[in-house]
Amino acid sequence: MCSIEYDQQLMEDSPPPKHLDVPFFEEALETALRTSRAQIVGIHCGIGSCNGDNYCSKIYRVRINYKRQDDESPQKEQQLALIVKSIPRIDNVEFIEDLQVYLKEKCTYFEVLPRLELLMQCKVRFGPKLYQCIRLPENALAFEDLGQLGYVMGSREAGLDEEHCRLVLERLAEFHASSMVLAILDPKIMEAYGDGMLSPKCLQEDRMLMRFFAGHGQQLHKLVSRWPGYERIAEKIEKYLVQQREHLVRSQAVMDKEIRVLNHGDMWVNNILFKYDGKKQVQNAIFIDYQMSVWGSPGLDLNYFFYTSLELDVLKHKRPQLLRCYHNRMTATLRRLDMGVPVPSYEQLLAEVHRREAFGFFASYGILPIVSQDKAQTSDNNLENLSDENFAKQKAEQMFNSDRLGEILRFTLPHFERAGVFDI
């Protein structure tokens, strides 16, 4: 049996992931090739992402060198590239288990996404292929490496321009629309997606996630209280924070007579990969990380994306055009699939987005401060550190000192006030 070679950076940053052993990669290779007639001759494992880019998991980039025994030229060495996502078990980080992130992601990649892609006649891909997964001793999933197909990540610090946003919203509309059809064909399939990031179970007062968002709320109030002309908004934020947990739960909770889709649940820049042509024009987008997916209003994904991932100028001036782009693609997709799913009107879509502005407000102070940080400040951002109250408080103070964050909030907070987010 061959051994695994680890690169120097991985060895320096942390102990090698012993749960990712040769049998794990043998299973992944068999699934990827759809044959057991292959022999691994070498495995190389390295760090797969920059520190601070992934908060719930460790990412490894793996290369498997192998020879096929059923080839005409069996001596020819070939390579399979994998991205392995490992979710460590950390004390005091209960929401990982509460949300069943491993089970949810496994079911999504193995069952839901392939069926959605079949509905789309395999002309669209909604995610990478999942080749292998284990639950113990750590949750771990091995995916195809989309980097080998030319996909790269956008800039979370700068946000996305209009061209990238249009592409994302077209793909998101197809994902949402096809999930509506799948729910008609298999009504029980969405039962696993009842709990999202802001479910009551995850936001218990004494747990890490609620403490984290509470700290962000306090930093938001502290920041806005210093801005001339924002006194009224600062007052309203202070009142909002008195019942912050209730407001957060309500912002995601299912509402009567709403449009319902499978939401990605964590739709921000780092969970979207882009592909470009030779002239560096963006051609395609594909989503990753479905561990927070939730069944509910499309207004959840749309508001979350708008308030975490757009260039400020795009958010200020192109929001109606982007919503129209999303609606046009959703309409075209539902009509093409022709399964009797009612096509929402544009006015219905706007109403869904408006009803979920509170979720957008949450994204703007609970998530944007994390994802808009300069990379030089994110090397120590991980769940283990953020579960420490003193570290989380110091990190929140650092996040809310960002010039970009302040500029965005000066625009978005008056918008949320006009939308009635604070008048609950």
UniProtKB/TrEMBL annotation:
Under which name does UniProt file this protein?
A: GH10995
A Pfam family assignment: EcKL
> What residue intervals traverse the membrane?
none
User: Ranges for the CHK kinase-like domain?
Assistant: 141-336
Q: Which domain of life is it from?
A: Eukaryota
InterPro entries assigned: CHK_kinase-like (IPR015897), EcKL (IPR004119), Kinase-like_dom_sf (IPR011009)
Xref: PANTHER family: CHK KINASE-LIKE DOMAIN-CONTAINING PROTEIN-RELATED, PROTEIN KINASE-LIKE DOMAIN-CONTAINING
SUPFAM superfamilies the record matches: Protein kinase-like (PK-like) (SSF56112)
